Records
---
Amino acid sequence: MAPRLKIEGKTTDTPDWTCKVQIEDMSRDILSLKRKIQFKNLILVDEQEQQMRATVYGDDIDYYAGKLILLDTYLISTARVKVSLPSYGRIIHKFYWVLYKETLIEHIKPNNELEKSLHRPNIVGVVLRCGPSKYVGRTQNRCQIERAQLEDQMKKGKEFPVILGRNIGIFDLSLQTRFNSAIRINPTYPQALQLISWC
């Protein structure tokens, strides 16, 4: 088996490696303006809270569509390591990974006894009321999507959906999303399943 390394331990010259990461964020499919290539970006975080961007291109997006789940943990091996260029947006690390069909990806289930999943969420809760949105800053699209999903759940008779959140600000009884916040509605996380069965 390839040696287990953290994100910081891998460069373009590292031959064989395995890294345990959680998917912290996942973009929609994007079409590059210059080369007309479809791609999707993921933000991965390891056990030391180091972040890394990973990119999936073209046909590999469909290949990974049902395999990569936001906030789940994976063991990733043999991804291509590339140098990050400032012309491709905000750099979070000097390298990024390219995931392709030959990349070895093992999904770690939340209840796995041998290999623990990473980063427990900072909130698991029941939504009692979905109040009006308030925006601070320029990016509001993601918040709108999450709010629409919550309202849709409530209209379908699921009065109290359960949410799992990461990097969420908590103020009194209100939640505040940030640029790196992630929210899943009625997820399969063990504590969330307990709440769902209670609701």
---
Amino acid sequence: MKSNHNNSILNSLVKYLRLKQYQFEVTFCPYVLTPGEKLVFNTILIILLSLFTMLITLYLPLQIESLITRARPYFLGDIVVVDSAPPTRTITMIEMGMRL
């Protein structure tokens, strides 16, 4: 009984994956391509999707944090943001040893 249940789950998963493959091929038309062209098409698609995923995971949290930081004064009133970076010092040409 247990193996029959596992078999039906496996069959339904295979059926679902075949349906998704069919929907992909009908939507993006790779079924009209030769096997080599399909390989290039799918490779480019996978690379673009992986780069987009990396972009989302790496930069979206930083952008959201920046957006929240910039929007905070509008929602909470005037809050003075103190920059924790030390002041920069300008070096003159004389200090660098250059002559005009």
